[in-house]
Amino acid sequence: MPSRPQLAHLTAALNELREKGTYFKLRILEDQQAPVCHYDGREVINLASNNYLGLANDPRLIEAAINATRKLGVGSGAVRTIAGTMRIHMELEEKIAAFKNVEACVVFQSGFTANAGTVSSILGKEDFILSDELNHASIIDGARLSRAKIKVFRHKDAAHCEELLKEIQNDPGKKLIITDGVFSMDGDIGPVDKLAALAEKYGAIMMVDDAHASGVLGRNGRGSVDHFGMHGRVDVQVGTLSKAIGALGGYVCGSRDLIDYLYHRARPFLFSTSHPPSVAATCIKAFEILETEPERIERLWSNTRYLQSQLQSAGFNIGGLTTPATETPITPLIIGDGRQTMEFSRALFDAGILGTGIAFPTVPEGKARVRLIVTSEHTRPQLDRALETLTTIARKAGILNAA
Questions:
Q1: Is the peptide bond before 361 cis (omega within 30 degrees of 0)?
Q2: Has residue 1 got a pLDDT over 90?
Q3: CATH numbers and ranges of domains, the chain
Q4: What pLDDT sits at residue 196?
Q5: Are 97 and 253 spatial neighbours (Cβ–Cβ below 8 Å)?
Q6: Among the options 89, 155, 175, 243, which is catalytic?
């Protein structure tokens, strides 16, 4: 059925993506989110998932979800502030607060809404936001919704951030410094320690988005604040329940007053139905496993070091020089051209490797890449097979020089 003329601009935009070679269709997962699984009927080694610790299909989490559903039902039936706050929601928030070593926590429906809802509610048009140029889209959207004045500092450049702070230090209004703990496209770690020191020096609020650091960095996966030993010096910590934790949602940690304020003013919290009890129970069990099984994170880092060292030895560009060098399990294969990147990703899929091509506007023009993420549950034979396939396809595509 053809589009109505009122939507012709959407068709034109899609046709432009097709011409550039960056148009894609959603791949459909047919079984569990595992190291080897089936997409679109094809068995693949999965190197595209955020399931860092394999918890999305851990039997103990599945059992926790089933038990909570039997006992408490499939849904909460309301937003948190009306009738939808269940005891299990409070237990999850208390669990996370204790894990993160803060006074209190609030759980949002997603990591995106946690960022956007927090930034937009704690600042106003008279305030200032100092944001890393590669911060996540949810931070950018939250900053715009706040109507605060936005100052963007060069990636991981604390000196540039201080220059901007000096320019506005005598202006009225609150100042907020915000950075990703781990940057989702390049895998490098934000300078949380340096930026927190600047926040103290200039009386600014310090905020960190730890979506890709939760379950990856710090003791038992406590995140970048723990990684840098900055407890008590970061005012707002955002995390996710949908990556290493294996389920769904986001959270914000901080002082009791911060969380009480978000209960009253964060619009995604106020206007979205709360999580099903199965999700809350699953997340509680995941944090228990983080506390008791640090070997999962050790396996994650062992697999990461092996994959990255082998990729570099083969000649792949995984960051450095003109791009940030990855420091985490996020491993970008920098290719540059969007069309070539998407063709490489499709060829990998046909050969049994799921590695997602990412191009503009998710990353800047000329910085297209296939982003790989290894997990704790990949075996060495699986990684070796993936490396052999990656190298073979890259040589055929002219991304690597032929041996």
A1: yes
A2: no
A3: 7-56+294-396 (3.90.1150.10), 58-292 (3.40.640.10)
A4: 98
A5: yes
A6: 243
